[in-house]
Design a protein that fits this description.
2 copies of one chain form a homodimer. By secondary structure, the first copy, chain A, is mainly alpha-helical. Chain A is 54% helix and 11% strand. Chain A has 8 helices and 4 strands. The first copy, chain A, has a two-stranded antiparallel ribbon with strand order 2-3. In chain A, 31% of the residues are buried. About 6% of the residues of chain A have low confidence. The structure holds a DNA duplex.
DNA sequence: AGGCATACGGATAAATTTATCCCTATGCCC
DNA sequence: GGGCATAGGGATAAATTTATCCGTATGCCT
């Protein structure tokens, strides 16, 4: 397992939060779990861009950081369910704010990001699933 | 300059926001600028952990992403001032939420993070400056 | 038996981000 | 001249995060 070499910067709240959310899929994972999408295979289907491996790793980090809890059912085939902890729930306003800001500024952001000196291509189309699910859960 | 090789994930608002905030000091930079700490040298003094180089790079990215504007005064010695754009300002609620959540959960987070399998040491003590400045500006 | 689903994680390569080192330029002051 | 302050950025190494590949385990279905 990887071990840090440089000191971690933890001075202000900003850095603490950043550390917890540090990982390509962590905000999305928290969001998914908050929507009651709790089994690893469900989550994976929701995030086609991610591999099983990364999800495992980042879910474990979220668990170690006390944001999610993992329940393992002693069954075969195995069944695992994640849920948010108290602290995890308290992060949701931040996640939601990020999500909303990004969506609200999507057009602008896609433009500036694609003009970025980096950025060769972009993968979209996934999280529409989120919205569908949210609708289903609202109406259903 | 570095050029991406993997496609950028941009599907949901979460990823868009993450991309804009992607950089060790970006939230702190936006926060500082919002507090009217706008000259590079001032900002640098505020963030002792960061080097001049990184700040330049990340400020430029923030500028390219349309979050900040850079005003160069044709003087000698040179004078530069950054300010938030409209869009940049609209991000502040997110930044503030992150900052507040981190501060509110500081004790818990410091504990879990230091128990992290990684994490050899931690550097603190800096952003107290933020708070001092905030006070000064309030009372002064 | 072979293929599917569930779930986990080691090892290593590749990608990406940060850190370091070093050089440019100008004016002021001792 | 030498040192300070202002501000910017190339080149490269090091650190860190992601991506890939592969192997483990069990039960059900055809």
């Amino acid at each position: 397992m990887y071990e840090r070499k440089m000191p971690l910067t933890i001075d202000c709240g900003l850095h603490l939060t950043k550390e917890v959310l540090n990982g390509k899929w962590k905000p999305a994972l928290l969001h998914a779990i908050s929507l009651d999408i709790k089994r690893p295979s469900e989550i994976l289907r929701l995030l086609p861009g991610a591999t099983r491996r990364v999800l495992n790793v980042q879910l474990k980090e979220l668990e170690e950081h006390g944001m999610v809890e993992k329940k393992v059912y002693p069954q075969l085939p195995p069944k695992v369910e994640y849920s948010l902890t108290e602290t995890g729930w308290s992060l949701m306003p931040v996640i939601d704010a990020m999500n909303q800001w990004g969506d609200a500024n999507r057009q602008f952001l896609e433009t500036v990001i694609s003009q970025d000196r980096r950025t060769p291509q972009v993968s979209k189309s996934v999280c529409q699933l989120y919205r569908n699910m949210k609708e289903e859960r609202k109406t259903g």
